[in-house]
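S1.2 Input.
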Amino acid sequence: MAGMFRRCLTGSWALMMGLVSLSAGLGGCGAGNPHPVGSYDRGVFFAEQGKDTEAVAALESFIRSHPTDSLTAEAQYLKGMSYMEMEEYPLAAVEFQILRKDYPISDRVEDALYQEGVAYLSQVGRIERDITGAYEARLHFLKFSRDFPNSVHMPLVVEHMARISDLMVRKRLEQVKVYRQLRRHEAVAILLDGILADEAGSTLIPQVLWERAKTAKTLKDPTTAARMHQRLVAEFPDTRFGRRAAKALEGRDDMESIEDGD
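S1.3 Output.
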């Protein structure tokens, strides 16, 4: 009987200690984030700690539970930014779209439109691959520029647009190489003229002007070659293309290709 009592006591003690451990574990979880489940602050806490997956879940819980709360739009924006931190750019873009659709008078609409464009641009890989995201980003940044011309984001928008333009130019210069190898110089001229017309904001325009002058010489069109050189000297005098163009106009330089920009 005594042995049985000791066994029962031992079993009860083990059960009690198990419950204490479970309670401590739950308490630890609570201590990890002091804010209650379903609260906005809980999502913010996770985001500030860099726990983006947990932040997304917590913010989603808050948004579902408090659809009319004054902080819901802010939670939606923070959810999108958490996806950005996770490099889940398609998901982030969707969250920013939701914010603009569901909370059209929120102060975060401006930021959401900007970040949506960044999300599209962030999906662009090497120029050999699909650059659809760059086209989508350009459309969004153009819309942003029209809707928020005085935004604090505009300096970055200008930088992004230049980057997008460079991506477009590099993609089309790859086509130029192919046509040049095939000795289809008229097609090369058309492609280069299209770049000059469409991508005036690109940092690669000096290279395009140089290549267009070279192509004009190949096509026995000295007038166009001289015009391209004159543009280089007038608009880009401090680039190596501008310096070479100045020499070419003086008849002191050949027309060999320069593949890389400054």
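S1.4 Remarks. Confidence is low (pLDDT under 50) at residues 1-31, 257-262.
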